[in-house]
Amino acid sequence: MNKDHDSLKEDEENPIWTKDDFEKAQPAQNVLPKEFFASMKKARGQRGKQKDPTKQQVTLRLDPEIIDYFKSQKPEGWQTRLNQALKSYIDEHPI
User: Computed over its alpha carbons, how large is the radius of gyration of the chain?
Assistant: First the structure.
């Protein structure tokens, strides 16, 4: 084992933060230029923010067999198919 303990020495370029450092810290959006965030590439397969949100996010509890039914057809897009099924039901059964 290395008795010098190099790994425990403080890194001058990245000093250990003090309580005061944490209290003075600000979110990146407040200190970095907007161009920084604009230049960041999205990860592959990551969707961008909706320009004009057309749907609302909700939390909904469903029976497992309902989820299994829609996922068994094809796991991808099961929520879209469930949405379409609900729309069809509404069209056929107006209140």
Answer: 25
